[in-house]
Amino acid sequence: xxxxxxxxxxxxxxxxxxxxxxxxxxxxxxxxxxxxxxxxxxxxxxxxxxxxxxxxxxxxxxxxxxxxxxxxxxxxxxxxxxxxxxxxxxxxxxxxxxxxxxxxxxxxxxxxxxxxxxxxxxxxxxxxxxxxxxxxxxxxxxxxxxxxxxxxxxxxxxxxxxxxxxxxxxxxxxxxxxxxxxxxxxxxxxxxxxxxxxxxxxxxxxxxxxxxxxxxxxxxxxxxxxxxxxxxxxxxxxxxxxxxxxxxxxxxxxxxxxxxxxxxxxxxxxxxxxxxxxxxxxxxxxxxxxxxxxxxxxxxxxxxxxxxxxxxxxxxxxxxxxxxxxxxxxxxxxxxxxxxxxxxxxxxxxxxxxxxxxxxxxxxxxxxxxxxxxxxxxxxxxxxxxxxxxxxxxxxxxxxxxxxxxxxxxxxxxxxxxxxxxxx
Length: 424
Fold this sequence. Notes:
single chain; mainly alpha
């Protein structure tokens, strides 16, 4: 058996298979197009807020247009692309297939993904928002606790001034025992610091209560992310809880005493009410003035230390501003596409699966042409074609035998020319 003959047999075998497959290919394309249209309809309905008849009609019209477009597009390519013989025509049709596939993804696939995983994507958005709120709440609480820790610095400073006042009462600083001018300066500053320390201690209970309330709201928000029922209804309740939680975080920021300690440290050395020197002689008054001057220097140093501690707390990175933004199912699927890769793959595959069929048919047609082109025309004829040719030949021969032969006039002279007779 020659190589051309084997190629012809292979081509005829592939043609037989293609003929059988072509009998239901259109039906398969129709099923895929309708399935894509159904999911597109569900995705469009999720985007439309209005539930009236007009929205229903718009969703049906859009999904019908998508189904029709998909069916017509792939039908064109499945018929035309495999029939192209030149590289240029095939390239242009492949480019058309790429552009059309992108258009199908843009108008249908993302809506299909929204229908497949839209609710789960919105729940993912709620869960991410809860994490952001939790981080913001914990950060605000941490900064507030850092401010509360300044109470220890304030207490140490107050205690140092109380100790100095006790020394001055015994005459250990100015040399004059009693409760004179130096003693009054020391008690003035210790009383100021004591009031600040009490204010800081009073903030502990509100801080703990606000943090506990924030955690309770977070627990309710976490429950809403996994609760049964339509995700749209849960998102509304989630939004209300997020507003309450934002208020709690703002309250925690306002409860921070770091700004108050910073202002108190600035005023510690600057706002000193100097009492009248009450020593009985000039030498005692000079000793009091020298002691007060030294105390003012100590006040400046303690104030600088306290202000530095408060500045460290104020320099901490504040809690991030978190605002819950409601999101549609389609937007959620796009934003969290990495978490829903299987849904995206299924949504795209249902639209672009016919591209594989187009390539298969193109390869099969190329194999048919490769099997037929090297053969002679008479070798490429099928049995039916050969039978038809034989019958046609027999009909021609029979027609020739049945018709009488044309008469011939060999002995008759040629007819004279009319013009010549007239001249004669």
